[in-house]
Amino acid sequence: MEKAKWWKNAVVYQIYPKSFQDSNGDGIGDLQGIIQRLDYIKKLGVNVIWLCPVYCSPMDDGGYDISDYYHIDPMFGTDADMDELIQKADAKGIKILMDLVINHTSDEHEWFQDALKNPDSKYAGYYIFKETEDGNPPNNWRSYFGDAAWTRIDGSNRFYLHAFSKKQPDLNWENEELREEIYRMVNYWLDKGLGGFRIDAICNIKKRLEYGVFQPDGEDGLRYIGDWILNQPGIEVFLKELNERTFRPHNSMTVAEANVPEELLEHFIGEDGFFSMVFDFSYTDIDVPDTGEWFHPKKFTVEELRDNIFKSQKMVQGKGWGAVYLENHDQNRSVNKYIPEEDINYYSKTMLASMFMFLRGTPFIYQGQELGMENIRMDSLEKYDDIATKGHYERALKVGISPEKAFELVVKRSRDNSRTPMQWSTGENAGFSNAKTWLEVNKNYKRINARDQEHCEKSVLRFYRDLVLIRRNSKYSSVIVEGEFVPYYTEDVSIIAYLRILGEKELLVIHNYQSKKGTIKIPDGFKERVLGNRELRNNADGQYCLEPYECIALYREVS
Ligand code: GLC
Ligand code: CA
Question: Which residue has a Cα nearest atom 9 of ligand 1?
Fold first, then answer.
């Protein structure tokens, strides 16, 4: 692998620091906790960690509201702890990616505080303010979290724009001084030896500001903001500059949270793109309508899921490099999303793992996914912490959904499903903390935890480890990393199968995505079993009979 693209054969482990490991008994995960668990991460076989934000923050949106970019929030530890984490991880061959949140800051950031007090200060130019004569908001955009996107500053007709919560004012990227401040900050962190960044909400930095009242798309009289701030023309100028001034000189790995339309994709992830890779939302958000409203969930079939994955793989491989994932801190748990409740078990969980880990692109495993952690059901809305969950619940009520139904929808899709404490053992609070935890621990930790899975050969954890090992360090690595993705269609639309091909090396991966048996025709020569969740059986007349939720990867070399 050429050095320039070191991240191509990486496997990334995503950590939500607040819920990973508490080291000082305050019920909140922290950096020293992560340091204590580095051996576990190393053993999983990954070589990159993505840390969700640990900067100073009032934690209105889980740290995606930063009040000081240069310091670690005391909740997570000290600046020295961060340096220690970077060094200790590095010594184990693991690079750290931090989260880069530069579409907005916290309203408690000193820039914003200054801009509020003093409309003529240079910091007022760092944000997007608008004064109106009649005291009405400049327009009727709805933020991503459900309420109005403009908030009035008390005692004035001056408003500020926020695409997310009102405690997350958007930055004004048109302002050159602001951009310089951002580049300085990014380089400050990269110079410490970071591997790079995961870049938050970056497609929103260019705004097409228009004022007035637009045709509402909901009963709240508001209109979805995305049409004016997502991937707007001119964004490429900012992204190119950002890359040239920061990431490129450091040969950083960058993964952008960016849903990029096909025609722009090459600029983002091509040979000379703005980023190393972008996340693809097309199958993780398969159950959510385009406007992001959970209260109108979309049903989907295995066939649709397969088609989305295939389409995305083919599109990305024509343009550059991609990031693949099933879970993150904004999603519910994948096993609950993709598998019918009555079918959730070792077989279906490992089948999902295989389906995802053999794809082309850099895989991101979210903490607890490697254990097959599941959604939580808390008793009442008050117990949920996530701001988006609350916003969407309120909106659901506004559109006339009953409180009971709205709550059920929240239980299913809340981002807190993936934010509950990591399940390490059967000990107190699942071994996460010996104090009352900031968010409820899932009661199923006696059944699902790392310690037990470590000792059980047939566990989701062991399966993930095998997948990572095979991908990063085996005779199959090159075909898994660099091989072309080729769909393998079967008559049975509940089987998801695909090939990876590199020269004479061919891998065929098969997933029987159903609670029934299935059959698939296996071409000659695929006799070598790479991995599966069952033993390889006889393949009569080229027809292979699959058990429910069986997965199997086979290999051949053609001459
Ligand atoms: C991204 C983050 C999400 C956060 C939002 C606003 O989507 O992943 O957690 O709420 O940006 O920063
Ligand atoms: Ca702590």
Answer: 330
